[in-house]
Automatic annotation (TrEMBL):
Its EC number is 2.8.1.13. It comes from Aedoeadaptatus acetigenes. It holds the Pfam family tRNA_Me_trans_C. This is tRNA-specific 2-thiouridylase MnmA. Residues 208-271 form the tRNA-specific 2-thiouridylase MnmA-like central domain.
Amino acid sequence: MSRILVAMSGGVDSSVAAYLLKKAGHECIGVTMKLYENDTVAHTGHTCCSLDDIDDARMVAAKLGMDYFVYDFSERFEEEVIDKFVAYYEKGWTPNPCIDCNRYLKFEDLYTRAKELDCDYIATGHYARIQYDDTLKRYALLKGPDEKKDQSYVLYSLSQEQLAHTLFPLGELEKSEVRKIAEEAGLVNAKKHDSQDICFVPDGDYKGFLERRENKTYAEGDIVDEEGRVLGRHKGAVGYTIGQRKGLGVAAGHPVYVLDKDMEKNRVVVGNKEHLKKKELDAVDFQWLSYPETDRLKVTARTRYHGKETAATLIDKKDGNITLIFDEPHGAIAKGQAVVCYDGDKVVGGGTIVDSRG
């Protein structure tokens, strides 16, 4: 029997993770991270870590006979996640705050708290798997079997120590199975909707969140084609995403997509879908989970959460810098997003995209 700290968001996944561990006879402590003040988000009922979610997590913990605590990590979340989110958007990049939350909050701060509580492991409701390679004497992170729910993309930054002390009880399950287990166990959140979008921007209005938080209005500017011809006006370049087609409000006679954003000139550049495709990208802060014996290796890569995997060659530039050359041009690559590379189901590593070219 192990002593396990279970991260409980109030959703069905983390609740079933706790249930399965308790059923297996482990001593479990439930913990919810309070990440922000509840009145700072536009509540839609599809977020996580709200006061309602804390109530749900507490009720599940009580039903399972678990001690339960709420830890206030809001200051740390502000520094490591929200501040970076704002800075990236203001320079025209597209961050993924879930990666930073996992990296700095769940598997760093919460893991530290678990050690202070003499826990052997930390457990979450993520859909991913951890395996130990006896030959390499290393832990490997693998995809979950449910392709639509696989969360390995946002977990690539886990260290060997963290992997050694982390459990993913849902790793071999599909979402439908998790729902069924929750209903059979009588968990209060068995039919609860999954959280959508970013937890602190649950309405999906990133520009609105930025304006409220920074107390300013982002200026309108020109929407231009690749030759610089003005096609229309945008309502603040921070509100547009590479690859976006809807909501542009321009009449070009054919579908156009956001190809680039020039934040200095406050312009959004649009063009044909084919021009989104790039042959190469550069990434920094690349975290290796599987160390290759060569500086070049064949992988598949995702450049967006749940994005399509594309075959590519990974070139290690050392010091955390890599170049990725795709076998076929790959579309809608956004600076600030993560690129995560795979060898089959195994995560090779991941980093932050800083450039792409075609």
